[in-house]
Amino acid sequence: MTRWLTRWLTGWLTGWLTRWTTKWTEKNATAFVTAPGHRRDRRRPALLVGTLLVSLIGLAGCDLAGGLATEALIQRGPALEPRDGYVVDHRHPARGHNSRVHFLILHYTDENQADSLRALTGPRVSSHYLVPLPTRRLQNTPVVFQLVPESRRAWHAGASRWGNRVGLNDTSIGIEIVNQGPDRPWVGSELDAPEGPVRWASYPGDQLNALIPLARDIIERHRIASEHVLAHSDVAPLRKLDPGPAFPWRKLHEAGIGAWPEAPRVAHYRSRFEREPPALIEWQRALAAWGYGIEASGVWDDASRATLRAFQLHFRPANFDGQPDADSAARLWALLERYRPEALEQLEQGAQRKAL
């Protein structure tokens, strides 16, 4: 009964607000466009009325407030929107469109929070979101910083590539995570680790509890494919290491974020490749089929090593030396089988033709 009443009252109030807003805007659009000194926040009185109604319902102890706020005040806006010098008619929305966002790219800042904010709000680099450390909470809910609107292009990926797309700032949302990375200087262009053991800063549970709902929300709204949730090192393997080997990709996959190979299929391919490892050119073709920007030359050069290192950082962080081995091959082939079966079929057919 309560749910039925909620839906009925939500629908009724939403319809009333929409009709009232439309009539009011049509009546007053010209006046607001031509009136000197008018302000944008005065053009939508329906929002004020709706907010007041929702507040009154909430004060009365009714749990309709959240649903009404979402339906009446967010999804439904005025049919006519006065702007500076013209009026926009929203009554004929097109169905032929989708999100510009195809990728979610995760980074670490390699700095503390204060320095991270200073860098990301400066003139040279930015990201859409920053997940702070220490974690902030508001009424027991994690708080993240939004630095750039999702509709705008943030400068987070730089020179980057995935599949047939380059310059991924145009088609991605970037999340920076406050994390200090390795305990000694190590840039991605250096293929060999610094001398001595390297310790990587961890990602505390409270920080992940802020990141996971943020990433889920972005993925759901933009319909981002699992295999398009990427590390900065994935899209720029010759330059970057972040978010590093301490980042818990498997845990995020278990929370519904990103790709991960199935253990039985990894075991199957590991057994196969321990007997007969793939040729170097097959490695390169498989990495390219997954999405990395690598050329199939048959020569294991620095670009090949950096690319495999990026794959290992994501899917086998216990050892990311960039050298081919049966376990890495097993994970790569298992991923292709699960997420890109057509690409795997072409890869296997090519290998079979070569063997004949």
Give a quick precis of the structure:
46% of the residues lie in helices and 11% in strands. The protein contains twelve helices and eleven strands.
3D structure, described in words:
The chain is of the alpha/beta class and 356 residues long. Helix content is 46%, strand content 11%. It contains twelve helices and eleven strands. It has helices spanning 2-34, 45-59, 65-75, 113-120, 205-222, 232-235, 249-254, 263-275, 280-290, 302-315, 326-339, 341-355; strands at residues 80-83, 86-89, 103-108, 129-131, 136-138, 141-143, 145-146, 161-162, 165-166, 172-177, 229-231. It has a five-stranded mixed beta sheet. A hairpin with a 2-residue loop joins β1 (80-83) and β2 (86-89). The radius of gyration is 25 Å and the shape is globular.
**Share of helical residues:** 40-55%
Q: Gyration radius, to the nearest Å?
A: 25 Å
Q: What is the beta-strand fraction?
A: 5-15%
Largest β sheet strand count, sense and barrel closure: 5 strands, mixed
Low-confidence spans: 29-44, 54-75
Order of helices and strands: HHHEEEHEEEEEEEHEHHHHHHH
* Helix count, DSSP H or I runs of 4 or more residues: 12
Number of strands: 11
Instruction: Output mean pLDDT.
Output: 85
How do the strands of the widest beta sheet line up side by side?
Answer: 7-4-10-3-11
Give the termini separation: 70 Å
